[in-house]
Design brief:
Blueprint: H1 5-17, H2 21-28, H3 32-42, H4 50-60, E1 86-87, E2 96-97, H5 110-116, H6 123-126
Helix pairs in contact: 2-3
């Protein structure tokens, strides 16, 4: 393929009009990579990546923010990354959730994590298993008792 002055002029014009590289290539009978390479060698203005452009468009088309009640958010609008701290009676009309941004790996925001967990941590993190009580911990009935509690 030879880049004639006419093709270069048409490439420049279509490029400046915002045509896609694929569409320009179809018009000129060349591949889109040839169009990109020639535009670069000609020093034509760079364009934003079409992938980035689509991401920006998707960001603009993003769903509106969930409806937040004066007190909080309904279960229907509660989504990922939102605090699930409940308020009110689940059977009543005034039941709602906090809805603020949650702490990663936790179901609650910082304020409610402080209320839900000791020192803001999961209770299991504060009391490792070797410190927690249970059927195998604590007093077993004395040093001379077997598994059934009978004296030897």
């Amino acid at each position: 393929m030879s880049w004639t002055p006419e093709k270069i002029e048409l490439l420049t014009s279509l490029w400046n009009q915002g045509w896609t590289t694929a569409r320009i290539g179809e018009e000129l009978g060349v591949g889109k990579n040839a169009v990109v390479g020639k535009a670069h060698r000609l020093g034509l203005p760079k364009r934003p990546s079409p992938i980035q452009r689509r991401a920006d468009e998707a960001e603009q088309k993003k769903a509106p923010a969930p409806k937040q009640q004066s007190k909080g958010i309904t279960i229907y609008d509660l989504g990922p990354g939102m605090c699930r701290w409940p308020f009110g009676d689940p059977d009543g009309d005034d039941f709602y959730f906090c809805g603020k941004k949650n702490i990663p790996t936790k179901p609650y925001c910082a304020e409610h994590c402080a209320q839900a967990y000791l020192n803001g941590k999961n209770p299991r993190e504060d009391n490792p298993p070797h410190q927690q009580g249970g059927p195998n911990k604590g007093h077993h009935g004395g040093p001379n008792r077997g598994s059934h509690g009978a004296k030897r």
